[in-house]
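$ ./design --mode recover --in tokens.txt
reading tokens...
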């Protein structure tokens, strides 16, 4: 635990999932939220640790999780000692993959990283199964209606006066919320109830669900148009996609259902940008998520590497280790 570096961040955007680290979104209300941040979407906001490794995240979570008198919404469930319980034994663990959902319209390098991650889990003794993710074609729309309406409500006192001082991303979200009808909001809340029930049913057949974190490698800032809220992820000549829909595709399900999830690095694209995968599980089973990613990180080295960056001579070098992190290295731990 020496030289432990971490941050605790709000899960108010998908940005923390884009880093080459291991952020954890915990079961909603497992951590105290009052005095930590101003709410954006009260029924969706969540707080969680972000660390270089799953083992570091486990140590942090054991300290910050639990009920708090300052926040009456926090759960009264006992908090396990995540750090002491973590291990690299995942034999027999049932990991589900919805291949249509996880690969359809997804960047080829992300699909390749998914396959390598699946192979690593199988090698570690996990039982990978085919599943169907519920509401996969509706979850982003449900999330955006709820999030935008709640954001508009949270900022109603300040936005009308200081709208010009808001960034484009948040302003666009608030404007969506201000235009949302009561009927749209009611329908999305009803769909959310059905979604939560369907996710619970899915987790009776599996222990964890594996998906990419994003449908493309982490985008460069110059590929994002913050005025139009679009991202061009396929390089020159590709069509821009709606930024919200793209970034929320694999993550919004668990924001809506309140399930814990962890994103973890699984490689780099040919252009040197991070690629991450996501595991999600049942409510209050953060220990299982952390153990599974810890096992993966014991057998790979992706979490120890940094993205490729240009050096002063126009070439590339790894920021930390001095080697090029292309996919040919595969990130597997060295064996003697």
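writing sequence...
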């Amino acid at each position: 635990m020496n030289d432990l570096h971490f941050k605790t961040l709000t899960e108010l955007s998908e940005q923390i999932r884009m880093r080459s680290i291991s952020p954890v979104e915990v079961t909603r209300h497992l951590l105290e939220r009052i005095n930590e941040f101003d709410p954006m979407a009260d029924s969706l906001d969540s707080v969680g640790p972000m660390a270089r490794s799953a083992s570091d995240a486990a140590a942090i979570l054991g300290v910050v999780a639990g009920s708090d008198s300052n926040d009456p919404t926090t759960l009264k469930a006992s908090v396990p000692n995540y750090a002491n319980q973590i291990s690299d034994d995942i034999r027999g663990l049932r990991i589900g993959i919805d291949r249509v959902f996880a690969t359809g319209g997804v960047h080829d390098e992300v699909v390749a990283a998914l396959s390598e991650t699946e192979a690593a889990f199988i090698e570690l003794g996990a039982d990978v199964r085919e599943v169907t993710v519920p509401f996969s074609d509706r979850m982003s729309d449900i999330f955006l209606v709820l999030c935008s309406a709640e954001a508009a409500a949270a900022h109603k006192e300040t936005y009308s006066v200081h709208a010009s001082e808001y960034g484009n991303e948040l302003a666009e979200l608030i404007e969506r919320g201000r235009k949302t009808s009561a009927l749209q909001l009611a329908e999305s809340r009803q769909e959310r109830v059905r979604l939560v029930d369907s996710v619970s049913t899915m987790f009776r057949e599996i222990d964890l669900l594996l998906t990419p974190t994003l449908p493309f490698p982490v985008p460069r800032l110059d590929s994002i148009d913050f005025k139009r809220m679009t991202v061009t992820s396929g390089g020159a000549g590709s069509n821009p996609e709606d930024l919200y829909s793209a970034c929320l595709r694999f993550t919004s399900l668990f924001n809506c259902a309140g399930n814990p999830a962890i994103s973890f690095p699984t490689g780099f694209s040919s252009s040197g940008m991070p690629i991450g995968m996501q595991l999600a599980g049942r409510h209050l089973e953060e220990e299982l998520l952390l153990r599974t990613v810890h096992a993966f990180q014991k057998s790979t080295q992706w979490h120890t590497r940094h993205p490729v960056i240009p050096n002063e001579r126009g070439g590339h070098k790894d920021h930390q280790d001095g080697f090029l992190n292309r996919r040919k290295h595969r990130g597997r731990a060295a064996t003697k």
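exit 0
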